[in-house]
What we know:
The chain is mostly helical. The protein folds into two domains: 1-101; 103-205, no CATH class. The protein has eight helices and no strands. It has helices spanning 6-28, 31-53, 62-69, 71-88, 97-101, 106-127, 137-162, 173-197. The longest helix is centred in the C-terminal third of the chain and has 26 residues, at 137-162.
Amino acid sequence: xxxxxxxxxxxxxxxxxxxxxxxxxxxxxxxxxxxxxxxxxxxxxxxxxxxxxxxxxxxxxxxxxxxxxxxxxxxxxxxxxxxxxxxxxxxxxxxxxxxxxxxxxxxxxxxxxxxxxxxxxxxxxxxxxxxxxxxxxxxxxxxxxxxxxxxxxxxxxxxxxxxxxxxxxxxxxxxxxxxxxxxxxxxxxxxxxxxxxxxxxxxxx
Length: 205
């Protein structure tokens, strides 16, 4: 009997939780959440399918695909997606903790999102060694945070620019700063995981 790794169990469980969210969206008639859960399920399926269909990706693409082929990293991503989707519409309820019933729920998503984005960025930079770009541990950490903050700030700016036609994402400056703080705490937790636990990967020189 083949033993299923913990990370794969997490990925499959996250996919199932999002599927429950889809059923909830159908019961509640929430077209926005139907679209959201279908997109999330498609995304969660990629790391389950791609490594089987393309076990040996092109060499030049391997560093950029490394996180997708790393089930430990994908388990973290899966948790983030499943939690975020469930906050937007708690399965089998009408609660929208993210946009209506508990607006502070976005702190959870930003923490997990910061953790996930930093891990993926750092793993890609670490994998560049296979292309002859030999970054030291310190350089990987430094560059990963530069990219991380570029993405985080870019997201907040995009949200601000979208407020005029997407009313529910309107946030105060204080809220934006709190979002960036939670992003940062998530990234720092990722740095601790990698630095102290070598999970989901190692940054050793």
